[in-house]
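PROTEIN DESIGN WORKSHEET
SECTION A - STRUCTURE
LENGTH: 329
TOKENS:
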């Protein structure tokens, strides 16, 4: 048979994620997407407590803040054009009231800290090696928040910088949390604003750094999402309309590979039940009080009840249960 594409040999992870594992995921939009899929399948997951992070230094800084029990204060936020922001956070944390902004930041910080203390799996996804340093402090920011470009210095991290910056922290985490497993990925999303050539150099830098970290650190695994997108799915039909982000079909394909190589195969039936429940939750009845719809709701509640004996009740699990219970007449 004629071969029309290159298949990527994805190595199986030396560990498997189970429903008993707490998962913490930090990084790019791709990290957000994959972790959201885990959450939708009722895994206990903490997703980007600082918002989307693109570069390794910002990921490292965020992890350090979780480890060091730091609490944000007024000295950590700034006002720009009437909006209060944090250079450590995505703009989704910004707001008009500094007290509200700080409360939101510290709430998410404390929630993530508790998750990390119980975490069995840490997923880190890097999107770019390009960083912006605030000239006033010489520190890398996670988001520029539309502050004038003249306030920043743009540069590309080196492989050595990334490895040395992350190695010590990841080693500390593995000593403090000996059961912690770490999954590293390079985001397949292209950063074309950096320039086509610059994006390729950036991704190459990240790949070299990540592979060196995997070679040096125990309990660390590299999932080749970038290679799958670049080679296995080498076609613009697998990109979204912006020609930057993977299309829904591509994300489904990468997710299936992640599920096959990283999730416990013994729990596949449980994941199938969770997927059916999520689909059922999107169902909108024309006659919610009808006998047919009420039978449908009771069926979903029975399925959830059966799951309670097999998997922990994650926040998304409880939200799903509440969604169905509210429809009981």
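SECTION B - SEQUENCE
RESIDUE ASSIGNMENT:
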């Amino acid at each position: 048979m004629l071969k029309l594409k290159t298949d990527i040999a994805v190595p199986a992870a030396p560990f498997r994620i189970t429903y008993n594992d707490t998962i913490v995921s930090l990084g790019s939009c791709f990290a957000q997407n994959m972790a959201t899929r885990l959450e939708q399948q009722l895994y206990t997951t903490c997703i980007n407590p600082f918002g989307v992070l693109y570069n390794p230094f910002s990921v490292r800084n965020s992890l350090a803040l979780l480890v060091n029990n730091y609490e944000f204060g007024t000295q950590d936020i700034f006002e720009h054009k009437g909006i209060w922001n944090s250079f450590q956070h995505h703009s989704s944390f910004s707001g008009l009231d500094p007290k509200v902004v700080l409360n939101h930041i510290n709430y998410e910080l404390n929630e993530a800290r508790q998750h990390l203390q119980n975490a069995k799996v840490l997923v880190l996804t890097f999107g770019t090696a390009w960083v912006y340093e605030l000239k006033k402090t010489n520190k890398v920011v996670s988001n520029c928040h539309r502050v004038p470009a003249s306030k920043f210095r743009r540069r590309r991290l080196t492989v050595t910088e990334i490895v040395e910056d992350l190695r010590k922290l990841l080693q500390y985490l593995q000593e403090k949390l000996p059961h912690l497993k770490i999954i590293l990925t390079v985001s397949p999303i292209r950063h074309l604003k950096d320039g086509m050539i610059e994006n390729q150099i950036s991704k190459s830098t990240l790949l070299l750094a990540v592979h060196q970290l995997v070679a040096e650190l125990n309990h660390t695994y590299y999932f080749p999402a970038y290679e799958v997108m670049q080679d296995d799915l080498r076609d613009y039909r697998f990109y979204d309309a912006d020609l930057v982000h993977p299309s829904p079909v591509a994300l489904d394909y990468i997710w299936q590979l992640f599920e096959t190589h990283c999730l416990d195969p013994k729990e596949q039936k449980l994941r199938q039940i969770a997927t059916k429940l999520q689909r059922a939750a999107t169902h909108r009845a024309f006659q919610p009080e009808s006998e047919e719809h009420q039978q449908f709701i009771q069926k979903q509640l029975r399925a959830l009840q059966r799951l309670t004996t097999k998997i922990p009740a994650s926040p998304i699990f409880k939200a799903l249960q509440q969604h169905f219970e509210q429809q009981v007449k």
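SECTION C - NOTES
The mean pLDDT is 92.
Residues 98-118 form the longest helix (21 residues).
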